[in-house]
Amino acid sequence: MKKRHLIAFPAAALIAGSTLNAQSVNPDLNQAASKVDLSGSYVELNRVDGDIQLLTEYLQLIVEVARKNGEDIPENFDIAKLMTATGLDSLKATAMSNTKQGDIWLNQAYLQTDGSGIFSIVGETNKQYTAPTMCPAGTDLALQLTLDLRKAPEIARKVAESVGKKDTLESQITMELPDLGLSIEDSLKKSHTVLNLAIDLDPTKTIALGENKMPRPNLVARADGLVWLWDKFGDELIQSQGMPLKKTEKDGVITYAVPEDMAPALQGYAPLLVVDKNKDQIWVASSADFLAKSQTSGQQLADDPAFKAAWAGMPATGNSMAYISKELVNQLETLYKTAEKEGLLNDEDFQKAKPLIDRLIQDLTKPKTGYVFAFGNDGSGIHLANKTAFPSKYGRYLQSAMPIIEKFQKEKCEKDKDSHEE
Asked: What are the boundaries of the signal sequence (predicted)?
């Protein structure tokens, strides 16, 4: 038997048996079960702590077999410590549900874990979302992304120790980065940021998109917690742009603006960048007017009826979220039909798949509301939720169909190769 088979067989057995199966709710599953909709058309519950333990034991045996067969694996490579370092051994249960709400699906998933290891990157315990109160009413794309790397050095050390690379990592992570004046470890400990983005399509104005036109997008973005990094690289970054930006500073707020006479060359845009050292915020906007809409207490996305309708049934708090308006989804259909009308989709292979693409566009634009997504740490686990045109269970069906699709693609490639050789 070949060496690789000694490892492949037990690994394949573990993967084959890892599918989550629906089971009756018991006390150990109550926490995860309470975070999804048990009345949904699809419900999946699984207690996995025992599975993680078994997986750990098998993986350690696989490592030992690989080492005996000549693989260069340190003697102190410890799978159990690796599972603890990554936080995977804290995973106790999972849950999933799909619920039809009119013409859209509410999909939820929950990972019951203590938030250690890689799960800490999600951020601290759920808070009120910041994007809906920053983005102006009518925003077509809203995004909030939380990234917390403050525990990364601790995680990295534990991972390095588990795989026998502790000394190697220590020399690297404590190395000072000349430009920052900080070590990699110290810079990571300062890396906790929340990124917010708003894009609003203005139907009263258009911009050129190749030979076509589309509603002009207004944009504003805000990064919280990165002013310390701006202090290190900001001036250098501005100088490298090669643009004559006008700089003003007042009461701890620095503004860089493009001269107004450059607006015609930028399709009417007059972008600016604002660094607010008092609030530890960095703003980028397509215009001063749109920036003002995001900084004032006027009508915001949180007050928008379209957003409220889309968000109904979603978590009230979290770490990250996204919203795609119905208007933006419809733009997908408009662009598709325009490209088709102008003959941009006449490729032979595309025409063969056109009925499938037509159906996909039809289904994606069917819901009367926009799409929403949420991701958060509630202190007991990680909660994921979204409302889209399809239930998440369809991913299982697609996964099952992939070998067939790949087989057809392979046969087509071989057929095309043979035809070229002839």
From this structure: 1-22
